[in-house]
Amino acid sequence: MPFKDLKRKQLAASIAGKQLLPIDKLGQRLKDFREALGMTQKQLAKRLKISQSAVSQIEENILSSTLKTITKITAALDCELLGTISSRLPLEKRLLIQAEKVAKRMLNRTFSNMAMEKQAPTKEAYNYQLKKLVNELIADPGPELWEE
Length: 148
Prior knowledge:
Elements: H1 3-16, H2 26-36, H3 41-48, H4 52-60, H5 67-76, H6 91-116, H7 123-139
Helix pairs in contact: 1-2, 3-4, 6-7
Protein backbone atom coordinates (compact mmCIF):
# COMPACT_ATOMS: atom_id res chain seq x y z
CA MET A 1 0.00 0.00 0.00
CA PRO A 2 1.51 3.36 -0.99
CA PHE A 3 2.37 5.77 1.82
CA LYS A 4 -0.19 8.31 0.60
CA ASP A 5 -3.00 5.73 0.84
CA LEU A 6 -1.88 4.63 4.30
CA LYS A 7 -1.77 8.22 5.49
CA ARG A 8 -5.26 8.84 4.09
CA LYS A 9 -6.64 5.72 5.83
CA GLN A 10 -5.08 6.75 9.15
CA LEU A 11 -6.48 10.26 8.79
CA ALA A 12 -9.93 8.92 7.91
CA ALA A 13 -9.92 6.64 10.97
CA SER A 14 -8.77 9.45 13.22
CA ILE A 15 -11.47 11.79 11.92
CA ALA A 16 -14.20 9.14 12.03
CA GLY A 17 -13.26 8.36 15.64
CA LYS A 18 -13.29 12.08 16.44
CA GLN A 19 -9.84 11.62 17.92
CA LEU A 20 -8.69 14.55 20.02
CA LEU A 21 -5.44 16.34 19.29
CA PRO A 22 -3.61 19.27 20.86
CA ILE A 23 -4.51 22.65 19.38
CA ASP A 24 -0.96 23.22 18.12
CA LYS A 25 -1.34 20.12 15.90
CA LEU A 26 -4.55 21.40 14.31
CA GLY A 27 -2.75 23.17 11.46
CA GLN A 28 -1.06 19.93 10.46
CA ARG A 29 -4.41 18.12 10.67
CA LEU A 30 -6.00 20.67 8.34
CA LYS A 31 -3.07 20.32 5.94
CA ASP A 32 -3.28 16.53 6.03
CA PHE A 33 -7.02 16.66 5.39
CA ARG A 34 -6.62 19.14 2.53
CA GLU A 35 -3.91 16.98 0.96
CA ALA A 36 -5.97 13.81 1.42
CA LEU A 37 -8.72 15.50 -0.59
CA GLY A 38 -6.16 16.31 -3.29
CA MET A 39 -6.72 20.04 -2.78
CA THR A 40 -3.90 22.57 -3.14
CA GLN A 41 -3.33 25.52 -0.83
CA LYS A 42 -4.20 27.78 -3.73
CA GLN A 43 -7.56 26.05 -4.21
CA LEU A 44 -8.37 26.27 -0.50
CA ALA A 45 -7.31 29.92 -0.46
CA LYS A 46 -9.68 30.64 -3.36
CA ARG A 47 -12.58 29.02 -1.44
CA LEU A 48 -11.72 31.13 1.61
CA LYS A 49 -11.07 34.31 -0.39
CA ILE A 50 -7.60 34.69 1.14
CA SER A 51 -4.09 34.35 -0.23
CA GLN A 52 -2.28 31.06 -0.67
CA SER A 53 0.48 32.36 1.64
CA ALA A 54 -2.14 32.96 4.34
CA VAL A 55 -3.25 29.32 4.07
CA SER A 56 0.38 28.23 4.30
CA GLN A 57 0.94 30.39 7.38
CA ILE A 58 -2.19 29.00 9.06
CA GLU A 59 -1.14 25.41 8.39
CA GLU A 60 2.34 26.12 9.77
CA ASN A 61 1.27 28.12 12.82
CA ILE A 62 -2.38 27.61 13.71
CA LEU A 63 -1.89 29.37 17.04
CA SER A 64 -1.63 32.71 15.21
CA SER A 65 -5.13 32.22 13.77
CA THR A 66 -8.46 33.24 15.20
CA LEU A 67 -11.12 30.71 16.03
CA LYS A 68 -13.29 32.36 13.39
CA THR A 69 -10.63 31.71 10.71
CA ILE A 70 -10.16 28.10 11.78
CA THR A 71 -13.92 27.59 11.65
CA LYS A 72 -14.04 29.03 8.12
CA ILE A 73 -11.27 26.66 7.01
CA THR A 74 -12.98 23.62 8.47
CA ALA A 75 -16.22 24.64 6.76
CA ALA A 76 -14.39 25.08 3.44
CA LEU A 77 -13.08 21.52 3.86
CA ASP A 78 -16.62 20.35 4.70
CA CYS A 79 -15.58 19.52 8.27
CA GLU A 80 -16.65 20.72 11.66
CA LEU A 81 -14.47 21.93 14.48
CA LEU A 82 -15.11 20.11 17.73
CA GLY A 83 -13.54 21.44 20.88
CA THR A 84 -12.69 20.29 24.32
CA ILE A 85 -10.60 21.38 27.22
CA SER A 86 -8.82 18.66 29.07
CA SER A 87 -6.84 18.97 32.24
CA ARG A 88 -3.27 17.76 32.42
CA LEU A 89 -4.13 16.44 35.88
CA PRO A 90 -7.39 15.11 37.28
CA LEU A 91 -9.37 18.00 38.76
CA GLU A 92 -9.19 16.65 42.31
CA LYS A 93 -5.40 16.23 42.07
CA ARG A 94 -5.02 19.80 40.76
CA LEU A 95 -7.10 21.12 43.68
CA LEU A 96 -5.07 19.08 46.16
CA ILE A 97 -1.76 20.41 44.85
CA GLN A 98 -2.98 24.01 45.01
CA ALA A 99 -4.56 23.57 48.44
CA GLU A 100 -1.32 22.07 49.81
CA LYS A 101 0.66 25.00 48.40
CA VAL A 102 -1.65 27.56 49.98
CA ALA A 103 -1.91 25.66 53.28
CA LYS A 104 1.88 25.36 53.57
CA ARG A 105 2.28 29.08 52.90
CA MET A 106 -0.29 29.89 55.59
CA LEU A 107 1.14 27.47 58.14
CA ASN A 108 4.74 28.48 57.51
CA ARG A 109 3.91 32.10 58.39
CA THR A 110 2.16 31.04 61.59
CA PHE A 111 4.70 28.44 62.59
CA SER A 112 7.70 30.68 61.90
CA ASN A 113 6.23 33.29 64.27
CA MET A 114 5.74 30.57 66.88
CA ALA A 115 9.32 29.39 66.38
CA MET A 116 10.63 32.90 67.05
CA GLU A 117 8.78 32.78 70.34
CA LYS A 118 10.28 29.34 70.98
CA GLN A 119 6.84 27.72 70.75
CA ALA A 120 7.45 25.71 67.59
CA PRO A 121 5.03 22.76 67.37
CA THR A 122 6.12 19.23 66.60
CA LYS A 123 6.30 17.87 63.07
CA GLU A 124 3.23 15.74 63.84
CA ALA A 125 1.29 18.84 64.90
CA TYR A 126 2.37 20.63 61.71
CA ASN A 127 1.29 17.68 59.53
CA TYR A 128 -2.03 17.44 61.36
CA GLN A 129 -2.73 21.16 60.85
CA LEU A 130 -1.60 20.92 57.22
CA LYS A 131 -3.97 18.06 56.48
CA LYS A 132 -6.84 19.79 58.27
CA LEU A 133 -6.29 23.07 56.39
CA VAL A 134 -5.95 21.30 53.02
CA ASN A 135 -9.25 19.48 53.61
CA GLU A 136 -10.96 22.78 54.51
CA LEU A 137 -9.63 24.46 51.37
CA ILE A 138 -10.70 21.57 49.14
CA ALA A 139 -14.15 21.28 50.74
CA ASP A 140 -15.18 24.67 49.38
CA PRO A 141 -12.58 25.92 46.90
CA GLY A 142 -12.81 29.62 46.22
CA PRO A 143 -10.75 32.48 44.86
CA GLU A 144 -8.49 32.53 47.94
CA LEU A 145 -7.10 29.23 46.73
CA TRP A 146 -5.59 31.03 43.72
CA GLU A 147 -4.26 34.19 45.37
CA GLU A 148 -0.49 34.45 45.10
